[in-house]
């Protein structure tokens, strides 16, 4: 089966927009259907379909059941939902009909359907039936999306990790923007957004290139505790920024504790600073 064979995208929300953009970009033919339509007209297929259910988590099970009833989903098709929190249980109706079910979770934050991030170069996870996982990985290859196969797991904790990155990244940008605007009153919101996005993009590059443990470029690395103290002092104009900075430092300190280049004296000073 070709990875793009009979590709069907269900939903017209944010995640669907990201897939739609990626399919167009890679010239992959697909059929988009409206989840809330009262009925669907999908021509009979001679080869198995790959159906991506990009609908709100709470409607995955009912939409899947409707797709099975309408024979859009049948034996040997692959069905993939996109929810990070859920395993394949909401797709039980498709499995009962002989289809192969998987949870394909793009590790991507899509804020606006009008301008979704390109999927090329990003990552996703897949869990479920081996045939569904293979189909997802083949599709990922065509889209330039790195699809990592994961086992059954605590999906709440897995999704918490994703939410921490996605929500935390925005929270850091918001707090930094507030400090920037108070420091440079002439700055436009667009310029401030460009500045924070530039930093986040460079951090993403470093994390991908050298891993989280080596991605730190902070005065803390040099044992420059006075600089960190000056930061905390300057952040008093926006207390949430200081709180975020303290939390971030506590996390990186826990990793630096294992770093031979970070002296015990610097660590002790940093701990003292954070406790005041
Ligand atoms: N947005 C993200 O950053 C993100 C990231 C990772 C994973 N996801 C996952 O991607 C999936 C889609 O999320 P989303 O952010 O794209 O949500 P969304 O923007 O709110 O869109 C959800 C879609 O669900 C469908 N829907 C709404 N009410 C429905 C109903 N009563 N019955 C059936 N379908 C209904 C609609 O499709 P129609 O318009 O076609 O009717 C709607 O466009 C979710 O599983 C989510 O967990 C999202």
How many DSSP E strands? 7
C-alpha-based Rg, rounded: 23 Å
Separation, N- and C-terminal Cα atoms: 62 Å
Strand content: 5-15%
User: Would you state the CATH class of the largest domain?
Assistant: Alpha Beta
Task: Give the SSE map.
Blueprint: E1 7-10, H1 14-25, E2 31-33, E3 50-53, H2 60-69, E4 78-81, H3 92-96, E5 100-106, E6 123-128, H4 130-143, E7 146-149, H5 155-183, H6 189-210, H7 225-234, H8 239-256, H9 264-275
Parallel strand pairs: 1-2, 1-3, 3-4, 4-5, 6-7
Antiparallel strand pairs: 5-6
Helix pairs in contact: 5-6, 8-9
The structure holds NADP nicotinamide-adenine-dinucleotide phosphate.
Protein architecture, described:
- This protein has 276 residues and is of the alpha/beta class.
- The protein has 2 domains: 7-153, NAD(P)-binding Rossmann-like Domain (Rossmann fold); 156-275.
- It is 48% helix and 12% strand.
- The longest helix is centred in the middle third of the chain and has 29 residues, at 155-183.
- The N and C termini lie far apart (62 Å).
- The protein binds NADP nicotinamide-adenine-dinucleotide phosphate.
- Residues 11-16, 34-36, 54-57, 59, 63, 81-84, 105-106, 108-110 line the site of NADP nicotinamide-adenine-dinucleotide phosphate.
- The site of NADP nicotinamide-adenine-dinucleotide phosphate has 24 residues, from α1 and β5.
């Amino acid at each position: 089966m070709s990875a793009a064979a009979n590709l069907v995208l269900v939903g017209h929300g944010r995640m669907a927009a990201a897939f739609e953009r990626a399919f167009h970009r890679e010239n992959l033919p697909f059929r988009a259907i409206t989840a809330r339509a009262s009925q669907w007209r999908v021509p009979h297929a001679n080869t198995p379909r790959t159906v991506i259910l990009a609908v709100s988590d709470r409607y995955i099970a009912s939409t899947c059941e409707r797709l099975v009833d309408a024979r859009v989903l049948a034996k040997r098709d692959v069905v993939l939902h996109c929810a990070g929190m859920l395993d394949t249980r909401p797709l039980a109706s498709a499995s009962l009909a002989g289809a192969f079910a998987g949870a394909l979770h793009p590790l991507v934050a899509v804020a606006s359907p009008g301008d979704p991030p390109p999927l090329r170069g990003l990552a996703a996870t897949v869990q479920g039936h081996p045939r569904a996982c293979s189909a997802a990985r083949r599709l990922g290859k065509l889209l330039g999306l790195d699809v990592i196969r994961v086992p059954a797991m605590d999906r709440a904790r897995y999704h918490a990790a994703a939410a921490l990155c996605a929500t935390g990244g925005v929270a850091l940008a918001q707090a930094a923007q507030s400090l920037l605007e108070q420091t440079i009153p002439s700055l436009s919101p667009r310029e401030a957004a460009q500045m924070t996005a530039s930093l986040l993009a460079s951090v993403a590059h470093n994390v991908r290139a050298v891993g989280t443990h080596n991605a730190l470029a902070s005065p803390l690395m040099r044992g420059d505790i006075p600089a960190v103290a000056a930061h905390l002092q300057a952040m008093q104009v926006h207390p949430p920024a200081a709180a975020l900075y303290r939390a971030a430092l506590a996390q990186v300190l826990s990793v630096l504790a294992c770093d031979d280049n970070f002296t015990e004296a610097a660590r002790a000073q940093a701990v003292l600073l954070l406790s005041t």
